[in-house]
Fold this sequence. Notes:
The protein is of the alpha+beta class. The chain contains four helices and six strands; from the N terminus they run H-E-E-E-E-E-E-H-H-H.
Amino acid sequence: MSLEEFYTDLFETAMEHDEIVLEVQVPPAAPKTGSAYKKFNLIENDQGIVAVAVTVTADKAGVCTDAKIVLGNAGVVPIRAKSAEKVLIGKKLTDKLFAEAGEAAAGDADPVSDIHASSEFRLHLIKVLTKRMVKQAWDQANKG
């Protein structure tokens, strides 16, 4: 089952009460793949206000051939920022596209306000962190 199917609601999964996770399969990364993750929190080791995880793959010509962006605390379940991924795939990435991906990721999000942060602050963080994590992953993918 994919993670998108696994998480169903806030603190809820598709698992039945008599089930247990026995295995998690993560496929190996393709060559020229970079990844980056950042959890923003006010106090170290505290609950994250938002989190952004990114993987991007480059081809030999420096074009993004694949991108995955996942947002944490951007809704009631982890969110795959598919609009942001579409901004990147098939293009040579630039600072402008990193910023566009951040804007698109915020558009995919539906954060709640709580005692830790407002939804507006979370959206701002999603834009900033997505831009930074895509750039970091892209730089890593293009090393060597």
